[in-house]
Design goal:
heterodimer, A: 428 residues, alpha/beta, Aconitase, domain 3, five-stranded parallel sheet, 15 helices, 19 strands, B: 178 residues, Aconitase, domain 4, seven-stranded mixed sheet, 7 strands, binds iron/sulfur cluster
């Protein structure tokens, strides 16, 4: 019987198999941020286990609330910073160099096909875009990852989503993943790894693939995976050029992480990308999804463009295309947060920041901030936010607030109109 | 091994997410105790009042996909510091379930019909449930009624609970593994 991608990665990383389908696997990288790691650091210290398994395999960033907004968040940053110094963790990104973890770490070249990665953050699944197994874990798993470089998982079950055709003009990876979550439901992929395959995925940029994999967890999946190809190699090339003679050689090596033809899947879902339209969520669950046209005229108070889902340069470019020459509606507050300093810099150089400012947007620094309702754009009770983030849970961006998830194009068009609407990029 | 059980808090809804169990704004806390008054503060459930309904409960009985959303282990901790060390549900989000056992607590899964039965026959303020881990049985008691329900958890999960959680278990075994 052939193997899925996750099965190949698990078999190659197996350290122990303590019971039944429980595998303890070795980790290639442990990612850390200042919300879930300080508790792990304190707990390890309290147990007399203030150690790290390999400082070169640990990457840490302060991203959720930065600059610190109060004494408590300042202390979280301090605990992480002191720990990184104490253990010689050189890949530590503090203010000035910090950005949203799932945008920053790929940009720094920390993810490779076939890698195993954990982080105390549910959207760690984003990194599966590179053909890696990357999973969000809780603090205790994170502690053991830091301490011993291992993590226990059930031997993965996989499902495969085959997307034929190409996305129509004005329809994006975000619309595609919202549609998929709507089909699967919020626990339709629990304990499963989702492989995204087919021409629509093959023609996507790495940024779009990350958007796709980012929201796999919203259907309950452990990880989303895209197959490594030349797009993956090109993205990684500056980081791997010493390892391989040519990009082709790199690809040949990474092909070992493709699934076998006779691999077994729990479920295979097929659809044509050409049939899709821009999507938006309407309730407090990410599977409450419908076409944007079905929500037309829903007024919003704030529009937020950013996050690990859609705060990358490609997202800002699309939003700027929609915004160019327009002003946002007087009834709307617009906030954009480029996800990393590099993205911010590119957006400046390309005139995108100017477009946002001319349209009336506030440009914030790279941070998670408003996405989880902690800073830089928290909404008031009863307010509505059109957002390019990934969660619409009750109170997610502020107690008593409503969040509608959508693509950057739809968010930009919504900012101009003052209510949810399709962008001009999409023609019905 | 510690005993698991006590009075039950019935939460009659599926997909209760970790933002509802412990809102993100409390993630700035670096001690578990600080989470105590904030448990289920934002739960979207008709008739539920966190300031009155949680006190004195040791068990949560709920529906499907409990603990979905963010990976925050603050969710099981917020339960733990309120004395709730056992959750019984139809199913869980993967990370939440793992976090419970990693902390040495119990996340028990029962079939939908059994959960239905618990809600229909036993939902009320005086119901108590106790787990016998060795026998794999749950004793359900409410005034004038009782039931004995089988459950199973894996041998590995049982070992985690016995070891007091994953950190101790793993550090004893895998320090030299790599
Ligand atoms: S941007 Fe939002 S979803 Fe992404 S890591 Fe930050 S808080 Fe989590």
């Amino acid at each position: 019987m052939g193997k899925t991608v996750a099965e190949k990665i698990f078999d190659a990383h197996r350290v122990d198999n303590p019971a039944g389908d429980i595998y303890v696997i070795g980790l290639d990288a442990v990612f850390c941020h200042e919300i879930t790691t300080p508790v792990a650091i304190n707990d390890l210290a309290a147990r007399g286990k203030d150690r790290v398994f390999d400082p070169s395999k640990i990457m840490a960033v302060i991203d959720h609330v930065t600059p610190a907004k109060d004494s408590k968040t300042a202390m979280q940053g301090k605990i992480l910073r002191d720990w990184a110094r104490r253990h010689n963790i050189t890949n530590f990104f503090d203010i000035g160099r910090n950005g949203v973890c799932h945008a920053l770490f790929p940009e720094k070249g920390f993810v490779r096909p076939g890698y195993t990665i954990i982080m105390g953050d549910s959207h760690t699944c984003t990194h599966g875009a590179f053909g890696a197994f990357a999973a969000g874990v809780g603090t205790t798993d994170l502690e053991v990852g830091i301490l011993n470089g291992v993590c226990a998982f059930r031997y993965p079950r996989s499902m495969r989503i085959e997307i034929s055709g190409q996305l129509p003009e004005g329809v994006f990876a975000k619309d595609l993943i919202l549609y998929v979550i709507g089909q699967l439901g919020v626990n339709g992929a629990t304990d499963c790894v989702i492989e995204f395959a087919g021409p629509a995925v093959e023609s996507m940029s790495m940024e779009s693939r990350m958007t796709l994999c980012n929201m796999a967890v919203e259907a309950g999946a452990t990880c989303g995976i895209c197959y490594p190809d030349m797009t993956t190699v090109d993205y990684l090339w500056t980081f791997i050029e010493k390892e391989f003679e040519t990009p082709e050689a790199a690809l040949a090596s990474y092909r070992k992480w493709l699934p076998d033809e006779d691999a077994a899947y729990e479920k295979v879902l097929r659809f044509d990308a050409g049939d899709l339209c821009p999507m938006v969520t309407f309730g407090y669950k990410p599977d409450n999804v419908r076409p944007v046209s079905g929500m037309d005229k829903t007024p919003v108070d704030q529009v937020y463009i950013g996050s690990c889902t859609n705060g990358r340069i490609e997202d800002l470019r699309v939003a700027a295309r929609v915004l160019a020459g327009n002003r946002i509606n007087d009834s709307v507050r617009g906030i954009v947060s480029p996800a990393t300093p590099e993205i911010y810099r590119k957006a400046l150089d390309e005139g995108i920041i100017a477009t946002f400012m001319d349209a009336g947007f506030c440009v914030s620094n790279p941070t998670c901030g408003a996405c989880l309702g902690m800073s830089c754009g928290v909404i008031a009770e009863g307010e509505v936010c059109a957002s390019t983030t990934n969660r619409n849970f009750y109170g997610r961006m502020g107690k008593g607030g409503m969040v509608h998830l959508m693509s950057p194009a739809t968010a930009a068009a919504t900012a101009i109109a003052g209510h949810i609407t399709n962008s001009a990029l999409f023609e019905e | 091994m510690q005993a698991f059980g006590g009075k039950v808090l019935f939460l009659d809804r599926s997909n209760i997410n970790t933002d509802e169990i412990i809102p993100a704004k409390y993630l700035t806390e670096i001690s578990k105790e600080a989470l105590k008054p904030c448990l289920l503060e934002d739960l979207n459930l008709e008739g539920f009042d966190p300031s009155k309904d949680i006190y004195g409960r040791q068990v949560v009985v709920t529906r499907a996909n409990f603990g979905c959303g963010s990976s925050r282990e603050h969710a099981p901790w917020a339960l733990e510091v309120n004395g709730i060390r056992m959750v019984i549900a139809e199913s869980y989000a993967r990370i939440f379930r793992q976090n419970m056992f990693n902390c040495g607590m119990l996340a028990i899964e029962l079939p939908a019909e059994t959960i239905d039965r618990l809600f229909m026959e036993f939902a009320g303020p005086d119901t108590e449930i106790y787990a016998d881990l060795e026998a794999g049985r749950l004793q359900v008691k409410s005034p004038g009624k009782q039931a004995d329900i089988a459950f199973s958890i894996s041998g590995f999960d049982r070992e985690l609970v016995a070891a007091g959680g994953w950190v101790e278990y793993a550090d004893a075994r895998y320090q030299a593994a790599r």
